[in-house]
Design goal:
By secondary structure, the chain is mostly beta strands. It folds into two domains: 4-97, no CATH class; 112-226, no CATH class. The protein has one helix and 16 strands. Strands 1, 2, 3, 4 and 5 form a five-stranded antiparallel sheet that branches. The chain has a five-stranded mixed sheet with strand order 14-12-11-15-16, with no helix packed on it. It has a four-stranded antiparallel sheet with strand order 6-7-10-13, with no helix packed on it. A hairpin with a 2-residue loop joins β15 and β16. The protein is globular.
């Protein structure tokens, strides 16, 4: 029986690779259209990605990114055949994405910057060559090093016009986490980002790697401070 590798790696999200990067460059297969699909099988010889570290990017017919909780992906470690199971019938398109060829050393890697309506992480990571950010970072609580990668920006849009205080961005195993004051409301998009309201935004989540701080006054961004330690 062939061994399989099961995971939910998705391009544009943070890829947590448990081994070193594969020797090949990042490769994309697709997009491929699907209509009412509950499962998809792509042979290794068809997609041509010679690695077990393969992620899925699924885009619905309305143009939105399918949530990673809506499917599971299995990769045969011998043949690299890919089997995808959708929790509900899926209509749209999908792409398979291979691993990254190397770590990056750009000053923009996972950088928090100001945007028109809020904040963003990795806003310029996708504009260079290579068009991604990838680092091995030691998590502050467990002391365990993990490989993190992003090829899509994570954005925070502040919705409240009267909220004031500091917003902190953290890199975590589950994605980018924006921690905001309780007097502020906001929405997150891209990069597997989420928003957490808390009385203490500066108190990082477990093993969260702090990226930066955005200071707000009455809903307006006043400044952005880079807090990356790498």
């Amino acid at each position: 029986m062939h061994k399989t590798f099961i995971g939910r790696l998705a391009a544009g999200l943070i890829l947590l690779l448990t081994a070193t990067f594969a020797s090949h460059a990042r490769t994309v297969y697709g997009p491929v259209s699907a209509s009412g699909a509950t499962s998809v099988f792509v042979a290794g010889g068809t997609h041509g990605i010679a690695s077990r570290y393969i992620g899925l990017v699924a885009t619905t017919s309305s143009g939105t990114r399918a949530n990673v909780s809506g499917y599971s992906i299995t990769v045969n470690v011998s043949t690299y055949d890919v089997s995808v199971t959708f929790n509900a019938a899926f209509t749209g398109s999908y792409r398979l994405v291979g691993a990254y060829s190397s770590y990056t050393t750009s000053s923009h890697d996972f950088q928090l910057t100001g945007a028109v309506d809020g904040l963003q992480v990795c806003g310029t990571c996708t504009s260079g060559s290579p068009a991604y950010a990838a680092r091995s970072l030691t998590q502050p609580d467990s002391g365990v090093a993990h490989n993190f990668a992003m090829d899509e920006q994570a954005a925070l849009t502040v919705l409240s016009q009267m909220g004031s205080g500091d917003v902190y961005a953290y890199l975590t195993q589950r994605g980018i986490v924006f921690q905001i004051p309780t007097n502020m409301s906001a929405a997150a998009s891209g990069g597997n980002a989420s928003v957490v309201q808390t009385a203490s935004p500066s108190t990082r989540p477990y093993d969260g790697v702090v990226l930066g701080r955005g200071s707000y006054f009455w809903g307006k961004l006043q400044s952005v401070t880079d807090l990356r330690g790498f």
